[in-house]
Amino acid sequence: MPQTPLLTGMLVSRGYNNKNLYQSPNQTKEEGYGNAGLCYRDNALVSGSLEALIHHLVPSMDYYPDMRIRKLAPRILQLLQEWTETFPYDYRDERMMRSLKELTQRMASGDELYRKVVHQMIQVLIRKLTTLSQYEEALVKVNATATDRLTVLKAKPQAIQRDMLSVCNDPFTVAQQLTHIELERLSYIGPEEFIQAFEKKDPLDNDKSCFIDHKKTSNLEAYVEWFNRLSFMVATEICMPVKKKKQRARVMEFFIDVARECFNIGNFNSLMAIISGMNMSPVSRLKKTWSKVKTDKFDILELQMDPSGNFYNYRTAFRGATQRSRTANSTREKIVIPFFSLLIKDIYFLNEGCSNRMQNGHVNFEKFWEMAKRVSEFMVWKKVECPFEKDRKILQYLLTAPVFSEDTLCLASYDSEGPENNMEKDRWKSLRYVPSPG
Known about the structure:
This protein is mainly α. The protein is 61% helix and 4% strand. It has helices at residues 50-57, 73-86, 94-108, 112-155, 164-167, 171-187, 191-198, 219-239, 245-265, 268-278, 281-284, 287-290, 296-304, 308-326, 331-334, 340-353, 365-382, 392-400, 406-416, 422-431, and strands at 29-33, 36-41, 44-48, 363-364. The protein has a four-stranded antiparallel beta sheet with strand order 1-2-3-4. The longest helix has 44 residues, at 112-155.
């Protein structure tokens, strides 16, 4: 994939431009505390030393950040409420939970109102963490069922009784059920998971940092695995050895229609997964089958998701979907599911392309503002409730139907349409010794 241009359109709402992230703060207004200052541009904080930030936030005998604050407890409690609401997975770490309880107990010890607020906050947090655990257990069961079905398929390759079309032959309904899966899995990805995935040790930080040594969730990785599963499932459905060319062509056209409906819904992740599956070499090499397919719609979809120009066409379509979402009156129009791998890549290159600290040791706030902007947009998209009615039978099939490995797909493809050149013949000969599909 072409590398994402760094920092495109950065922080437009704050009046920043791309070069500001690399710019020395010499031309900014500096609020000094000895040699450690805070730097502002257009009245917005852009960098500062850690010492100055602490000084700015913590009151002392002769310094008060806000003279209107008579008590710090309400503000601290508000901060904790927002933290536990926005970043609940941080508190899967027992040390974090212990620190939270110790702090809130001190705050609530002398005030009945604080006690009630603290109790409610802790209960909400525990419910969220319990729900996450239940979701993870459900994923384990789903994956186990898929593995069991693949084991049966390995033992009896001809025992394939069902395919997608036998479960549902309506592309719109399948696209709706795919959107259910996408939105559910998105909803469990916490914003802190992006930070954990891309955090890197800053050479200016000491080794005394705590609470960052263990990753407590894997919802981000599970979502990427779902994309891969859908791609391989599409390829498996097409390459199943029991199908004839006419049947395979029909399956291809069906998934093209599903992909188009995903595009119309705003489900770009499923759209790209389907296109990726159809572009796998075991599928793309089936020239005789493709000759029976009306490919006009597929060509249009491929053009929309073309990676050239750093996915220019996709990004244009995606901007249109997000604008529609912002002004939408119905939940149906609010759905925006990004091509997740590209979103991750954008955030990765933003993180790698800009240092956490500037050359003078200041914390690079502009970088973190942009990171926050990207993740905040994602949080809006993942909160949309799916408006479509669930079909348990279709969902179960999409989540647990056995999928072929890459080698087995190749073998099935060669069985469907024989190898055409020496390279394919050599590959086919080596795959013939694979004992069974899997």
